[in-house]
Amino acid sequence: MERKRADDSKAGAVPLLVPVDRFGFLKQEHANSPQRFTKTRSSSNYDKEERRVTKWRKMIGAGGSDWKHYVRRKPHVVKRRIRKGIPDCLRGLVWQLISGSRDLLLMNPGVYEQLVIYETSASELDIIRDISRTFPSHVFFQKRHGPGQRSLYNVLKAYSVYDRDVGYVQGMGFVAGLLLLYMSEEDAFWLLVSLLKGAVHSPMEGLYQVGLPLVQQYLLQLDQLVRELMPKLGEHFTQEMINPSMYASQWFITVFSYSFPFPSALRIWDVFLAEGVNIVFKVGLALLKYCHDDLVKLPFEELMHALRNFPEDAMDPDTLLPLAYSIKVSKRLEEMKQDCEKARAKPAQMANPVQL
C-alpha cells in the first residue's frame, strides 16, 4: 500500500483538496491562472446579484421559452443587461440562446454523436497534442485523459470532421474549452458551429482557415483604427516597427480567452455573442487607449512586453468595458470591409474583361 501511494505521488496526481477560485482555477499561489484578480463580495453584493438573477429568470422563462419574445419586445433592455454581465449561473443557457446554437441543436438530433463515435479526423493527433495546453490551471482540464480533456477532444474532433475545410487550429481549443465550462459537449459543439458558420453574426471560420484570412483582415483594420483614433500611438508603433500581428492575433483567434483574466473574458464573451466581433476591436482599442500615455514612451523591447502584459487595472471589466463601449467603430469597420471587398473584386474583373 505504501509503495502504491509513493507511485501515485510520483505520477503527479492532483491533490483532492486544492484551493480554487469561484471559477475553478487554481489560486495564484498554486498555479498561473487567467484569473488574476478577484473582488470581495459583501452581503449587499450577494443581495444585488440575487435580484439580478431573478430579473434574468423572468426575462428568459423556463428553459429559455420566453427569450425570443422578450428580445423582440425590449431589445434595448436585453442589450443593456448583457453589457452589465450575464449572471454566471445562467451564462451557459443565455449564450446558447443569443448565439442561435440552441436552434441548431434541435434541428440536428444525433449529428454530434455520429461525428464523435463513427467518424475519423485527420487532426486527431494534433488535437491530442494540444489538449493539455488548454486552461491547464483549471481543475476540469487538469487530469490527463480526465473528463475535461476527453470532452474537449470530442468537441474539437467533431468539428474537424463537420467542417474539413477548417479542420482544427490550436486557438480553437481555448474557444471550445471556455464553452465547455458552461455547457455540455453537444451544446458546446453547436455553439462552435454557430460562431464559425455565422448563425447570427458574420462567420468566424476565416479565423481558422489556411492562411488565417480573417485574422489578416482584422489586424489590418485594427492597425488603421489605431492610426485614426490614436495617431500619436500609431506613429510610435511605426517608429518602433510594431504591427498588430505582434500583439493582437490572439485577441481575435481566441476572443480574449487566452491569458486574459477570466472574469474579464467572460464579460467580453457575453457581449461578443450578442453583438459580434466589433467588441473585440473595441476592447483592444480600449486597452491601448487606457495605457496610451505609457506606451508612447517605451522603446521596442519594453513596448512588446507591455503589449503582451497589460496591467491588471487596465483589464478590470468594470474599467475596461465602459471605455470600450464609448469607442465607436461600427461605421468605420463597415467602410473598411467594403473597401476590402472592392479591392478583391478588381483583380477578378481584370482577369475576366467584359466582352462587347
From TrEMBL:
Keyword RNA-binding applies: no
PROSITE patterns: TBC_RABGAP
Gene3D superfamilies for this protein: putative rabgap domain of human tbc1 domain family member 14 like domains, Ypt/Rab-GAP domain of gyp1p, domain 1, Ypt/Rab-GAP domain of gyp1p, domain 3
GO molecular function: GTPase activator activity; small GTPase binding
This protein's UniProt keywords: GTPase activation
InterPro entries the UniProt entry points to: Rab-GAP-TBC_dom (IPR000195), Rab-GAP_TBC_sf (IPR035969), Rab_GAP_TBC_domain (IPR050302)
Residues of the Rab-GAP TBC domain: 85-276
Keyword Transmembrane helix: no
Record's protein name: Rab-GAP TBC domain-containing protein
Native organism taxonomy: Eukaryota, Viridiplantae, Streptophyta, Embryophyta, Tracheophyta
